[in-house]
């Protein structure tokens, strides 16, 4: 059997690596130093495992949050598809409203053109001629929901 050498220096309470603690457990000559090395080893293990458990819990929480987000449709393809469909629907609704507004404007423009140009045409042979007093003037107004009424005077 090989002879073992023991270390009789005291094992202080400073931060030691796990390798130093293992060596102290194997080679310290006094029981109190061996017990101190064992205690420090367990404390170091507890700190390390505690940190690892904290990290694992954070990873699990983050994973659970990601799973919940995916179930809700956030951050995944289905969520993006739903968001795009909603945006497309809003755009379609806006286009419908703009078309309706355009149709309303087109109808109003037709009324204005009819008021301005009517079904009769006036031929002016001499632009310096004044309108005769015997001619009759009729005022036609077009009002809608806006505050911009259109009035036209036609001469018959």
3D architecture notes:
- This protein has 156 residues and is mainly alpha-helical.
- It is 60% helix and 8% strand.
- It has helices spanning 18-27, 31-72, 77-117, and strands at residues 137-142, 150-155.
- It has a two-stranded antiparallel ribbon with strand order 1-2.
- The termini are far apart.
- 5% of the residues are buried.
What percentage of amino acids are in beta strands?
A: 5-15%
Helix content: 55-70%
Please state the overall shape, judged from the principal axes of the Cα atoms: rod-shaped
Major sheet: order of its strands?
A: 1-2
Unreliable parts: none
- Count of helical segments? 3
Task: Please give the alpha-carbon distance between the first and last residues.
Answer: 137 Å
């Amino acid at each position: 059997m090989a002879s073992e050498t023991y270390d009789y220096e005291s094992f202080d309470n400073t931060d030691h690596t796990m390798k130093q603690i293992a060596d102290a457990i194997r080679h310290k000559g006094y029981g109190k130093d061996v017990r101190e090395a064992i205690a420090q080893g367990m404390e170091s293990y507890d700190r390390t495992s505690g940190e690892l458990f904290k990290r694992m819990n954070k990873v699990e929480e983050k994973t659970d949050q990601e799973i919940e987000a995916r179930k809700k449709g956030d951050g995944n393809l289905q969520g993006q598809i739903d968001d795009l469909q909603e945006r497309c629907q809003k755009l379609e609704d806006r286009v419908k409203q703009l078309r309706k507004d355009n149709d309303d404007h087109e109808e109003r423009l037709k009324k204005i053109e009819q008021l301005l140009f009517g079904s009769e045409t006036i031929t002016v042979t001499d632009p310096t001629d004044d309108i005769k007093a015997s001619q009759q003037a009729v005022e036609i107004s077009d009002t809608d929901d806006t505050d911009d009424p259109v009035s036209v005077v036609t001469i018959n």
